[in-house]
Amino acid sequence: MARLDWMTFLAAHPKAHLLAAHVREPSAMALKRLRRLIQALIDGEDPAADYATAIVRRRDITEIQCGFVEREDAERVGARLGAKPVAASEGWLSESCLQLDEHVENALQLPRRTAINPSRRKKASNLERAGNPV
């Protein structure tokens, strides 16, 4: 579905599901890069409904927050990142969190491997041999 601006998302979906990725040593450039990587992961998961991401700083905590309309979308992305469910904060239907460490960051940068069925692989190979780009 659609990726929305954070404020638009919150206004349209006042009760949603939160995935919070804590960032220990946040620099502006690193936060933007990590947010883009998380957005790419979410887009690759083909969410069933709207979602949004934001860089949120409060007190001594910096997070990349991801809001999802559908709980299943939040759980699927959370599982990919190794997030753990926690008690939901006020205003959220469910919440999970993770520490965005080097291990998670490295996993975000790996290309997503998609399975190609054998008949499609054979057809692509035949097209390449015939000089046609796949």
Outline of the structure:
The chain is an alpha/beta fold and about 130 residues long.
What is the tally of beta strands?
6
What is the overall shape? globular
Radius of gyration from the alpha-carbon trace, in angstroms: 18 Å
Derived structural class: alpha/beta
One letter per element, helices H and strands E, the order comes to EHEHEEHEEHH
Most strands sheet? 6 strands, mixed
Helix content: 40-55%
| Strand composition percent | 25-35%
The tally of structural domains comes to 1
Write down the overall mean pLDDT: 83
List the helices and strands and how they pair.
Blueprint: E1 3-4, H1 6-12, E2 16-22, H2 28-44, E3 51-58, E4 61-68, H3 71-81, E5 84-86, E6 92-99, H4 102-109, H5 118-129
Parallel strand pairs: 1-3, 2-6
Antiparallel strand pairs: 2-4, 3-4, 5-6
Describe this structure in words.
With 134 residues, the protein is α/β, with parallel strands linked by helices. It has one domain. Helix content is 41%, strand content 27%. A six-stranded mixed sheet has the order 1-3-4-2-6-5. The longest helix is centred in the N-terminal third of the chain and has 17 residues, at 28-44. The two termini are 27 Å apart.
Essential attributes:
6-stranded mixed sheet; 134 residues; globular; alpha/beta
